[in-house]
Each structure stands twice: as C-alpha cells, then as structure tokens.
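ok posting inputs for the heme C job
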Amino acid sequence: MRYFLLVFAVSGIALLGICGFRGGLSRRPPIELFPDMVRQNKVRPQTPGDFFPDQLSSRLIPANTVPRSGPYQLDGEVLSVNGKPVFPYEDSAVNTGRIPGTTNWAPVTPLTITRQLLQRGQQRYQINCLPCHGPDGDGKGITSKYGMVAMANFHDKRLIDMADGEVFNTITQGKNNMGAYGANVPVVDRWAIIAYVRALERSQLATDEDVPDPYRAQFKK
Ligand code: HEC
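and the output
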C-alpha cells in the first residue's frame, strides 16, 4: 500500500509534468543555456514603439529620397518612347530588346539618339567593352595580347546588319565566350553603348559623299 501511494504520486506528477501545461502560452522565454543572440531588443514591424516621437516603429520614407522604381532617366531627364516614360517592369523593347508581343528583335534602338546618349555610350563603351573589343571596335582590345581570342569585330557585315535588339541581348546575356554584362551595365547604358557602337561602325563606312565639298578634292589626291 505504501509503495502504491508513492508510485501513484510520482506517476501523477509525471503525467502533470508532461501533459499538464500543454497548450499554455507564456511570453517568457524558456530556459536557454546558450541563447546565442536568438532574442534581441528590436522593434517589430507594424507595432507602436516609443523610440520615435510619433511612435511609429515602421518608418515612412523620408521626403525627396530616390524611389526604388521610376522611369528610365539620363542625366536626371526622364527618357520617353513614343511620348511615354518607360519603367523597368514594362514589356517594352527598352527592357527586352524585342518588339513587344513578338519574339522579333527590335531593329533599332527604341530610345531617341541624342548627343547626350552617344556621349554616355562612348564613356560606358570605353569602360566596359574597350578592353576586349578595342577602342575602334575591331575586336583587338588589350586582352587579345593576354590570350583572349576571337573577340567580335563590330565592322563585320554580320554585326553591322545585326538588329540593335540582338546586340542588347548579347550585352545582357553574353554570348559564347563573352560573359553577360547585364548585371554591370544598366539598361539605358546598354542602349547608349549600342548607339556608340553604331557610330563606330558608321565611322568606317564613310564614303566620298560624307566629305564636305571644299575638302573632297584634297581627299582624292
Ligand atoms: C572579356 C572580353 C569582352 C568584353 C569586356 C566584351 N566582350 Fe563582346 N565579345 C567578346 C567575345 C570573346 C566575343 C565573341 C563571342 C563568340 O564566341 O561568338 C564577343 C562578341 C560580342 C558581340 C557579337 C555577338 C554575336 O552575336 O556574334 C557583340 C555585339 C559584343 N560582343 C558586344 C559587346 C559589348 C557592347 C560590350 C560592352 C558592354 C562587350 N561586348 C564586352 C568578349 C568581350
């Protein structure tokens, strides 16, 4: 009988210990031997906090800061296609290099070519492409002296005839031995570079007709 009471009491306590407080909620942390920074002082989102005078723990964006998504710009001016600004999430040739709704390459740059865009393109070309494709685009950049081979020559007829959209895709995704530059060269800069590459190509395609009259005679000599 003595033992029965003892066993009864012990098993009663064990039962209570295992099942008794199940489902009970406590805001107090359990005993942790090595808390390892699991719990820290922090402000929870969407809760009041007393750190700021207005007691908002989720802060509003400060006035006049840069939005995460806006229309494409060049030197602070919004660029537009057909009179409308273009946003990075749009199905537009500016973003894809393709005519929207088709899989065809955009034949020419969708952005308006301005002096500003060309100058930007020259600068970006010289930073990103010149080491391989060379200052005049003949594919004989400095890397050709260090074992890099077969860089495309922009004066090849195939590349002169290539749609701007396809060149855009090559910059974005890379091609064969050429790595992708989409992560390094922003969208507007890609189009600027293409405009500049076209100018480089044009520079080699000049004919007598391009020389102003007074100078043409000199050239013939
Ligand atoms: C690290 C060297 C390197 C850099 C930098 C580089 N390219 Fe290339 N590019 C190559 C090589 C190599 C090829 C030839 C790829 C192949 O095997 O067809 C190539 C090919 C191309 C082609 C032709 C693709 C085709 O369809 O045949 C274009 C257009 C081009 N590059 C544009 C650019 C532009 C624009 C830049 C600057 C944003 C650039 N590349 C930067 C190495 C480079």
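notes: The radius of gyration is 33 Å. The helical segments are 2-20, 93-96, 115-128, 130-133, 157-161, 164-173, 187-204, 213-220.
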